[in-house]
Amino acid sequence: MELSARSRYNPAVEQKLFVSRAGADAPFAAEIGRILEDAGYDVTLQQWDFANHSFMERMHAALAEGARVVALLSPDYLRSDHCAAEWQNAIASDPLNTKSRLVLLRIAECEPIGLLSSLAYWNLVPIRDNRALLEQVVRDAVSQERGREAAIGPYWREPRTIIDPEAIRSVPSFSGREEELAAIATALTDDGSITALQGMGGVGKSSVAREYAWRNRDRYAVVWWLNAQNEDGIIEGLVKLGALFMRGLDRLADRRMAAEQVTRSIVSGFAKPALLIFDNLEDERLVRRWQPRTGARALVTSRNAAWSAGVRSVTLDVWSLETAAGYLLRESGRPDLSESEALEIAQALGALPLALSHAAAATKARALRGSGVATDPRRGDSGTGARAGSSRRCIESDEPRRPVRGLRA
Known about the structure:
Elements: E1 16-20, H1 26-38, E2 42-45, H2 46-49, H3 55-64, E3 68-73, H4 75-79, H5 81-90, E4 102-106, E5 121-123, H6 131-142, H7 147-150, E6 156-157, E7 162-163, H8 178-187, E8 194-198, H9 205-215, E9 222-227, H10 231-242, H11 255-265, E10 274-279, H12 284-290, E11 296-302, E12 311-315, H13 321-331, H14 339-348, H15 353-369, H16 384-396
């Protein structure tokens, strides 16, 4: 391609742009390059500039000269390790892209993943054939003066919440707890707030925390789960989060230092707050130690009923018998299970959600095998009654050793 457009470069713009694209997207990348050069930008594009040179050398040279990276998102782009290296280099020292060194243009149907999902992008898919509108949107996207002002139109996509994919999800057959969910939301309104969701073992603290996080994920920039039974679990969870933003962080030998870097320079740097869930925490000093000073909220699940001033506590009690029986009737898969039988089982299990989920699963499994249902949950024979006794004993062995406020006698 002849680069006559370079003669129209306006030095006053003082902007260099490196267009990062997948090989299959080269034709459209050239179209984007021409739009940017016609707007006065100094554009570096692989098929224009790197034909007779080392691609990586020229790429690093362009970035070293201050070039911003315009990444053209497509399925091929997201699958390419070379493309990942290009956009990651652009924000290596600024993982939250606060300096706008990385400009994302979505040019084909695809879903940004990982760190890319936390960054805003411009959607060019519906306007690829509208040349006039395409030029306007591309120019707005790269303009540091117009970019923020224009980022309210129909082709702008706000960053999505980064969630822990292994822990944050909707809880199947979630029942009740609407008052507790509302109380958590109210308690977590202030920057730096800590809310403790406390109750006895098996009452469903982790499930409530997970459901709250899932329902309210759009309020936060990050929603991340930390196994907080000990400090090592917290550190590893933070390092795992930080590795999304900083390549190689999870390979550092000093895990504590790596985790401190996450709380100091990443979690607190978003426009929206981060939500860190400290699951199964017993030592309050750990949440005080690892919660970022600003920009984050902490939701704690714990059996501990004693918290210092400044920690808002939401007590989780057992289900009501009506809620427990309704859950069994829905989840057991047994049309022959009567309401009175469900109430009796719920009462035998102390209306503990964890025990009831075990009982419902066992009853459903027996239904698939064509077995009958025990009508007396206190009996020690096979069927739901035996499962009820077993579930109750498991929960009782796991109850807290110290008293918990607000629980029924």
